[in-house]
Write a structure and sequence with these properties.
By secondary structure, this protein is mainly alpha-helical. The protein contains 2 helices and 2 strands; from the N terminus they run αββα. It has a two-stranded antiparallel ribbon with strand order 1-2. A hairpin with a 3-residue loop joins strand 1 and strand 2. The N terminus is likely disordered. Keywords: Metal-binding, Zinc, Zinc-finger. One of its GO terms (molecular function) is zinc ion binding.
Length: 89
């Protein structure tokens, strides 16, 4: 089991549901916890939504970057290397 799972099961002193993953606000024992991507707790729907938007922007930027690098590779000319025989007198 991973360390977070052990923590959740009581095998560790730290608990991954102690604080919001975005703003680090303490999560109360009797308050709602909003989860995202399996193991990221948030104190509110707003914090969770902000993290989703941050992740979406990062993914979009990564995809644009990947697309540009792929297009650059397709457009870049092959190096001009000439082959042949060289005669030295």
């Amino acid at each position: 089991m991973g360390s977070r799972m052990l923590s959740y099961a009581g095998g560790d002193d730290s608990h991954f549901l102690e604080a919001c993953s975005l703003c680090s606000k303490s999560l109360g024992h009797n308050s709602d916890i909003f989860m995202y991507r399996g193991d990221n707790p948030f104190c509110s729907q707003e914090c969770r939504q902000e993290q989703i938007e941050i992740d979406d922007a990062k993914e979009k930027k990564w995809r644009v970057s990947l697309k540009k690098s792929t297009e650059t590779k397709k457009k870049s000319p092959k190096s001009n290397v000439q082959t042949g025989t060289l005669l030295v007198a």
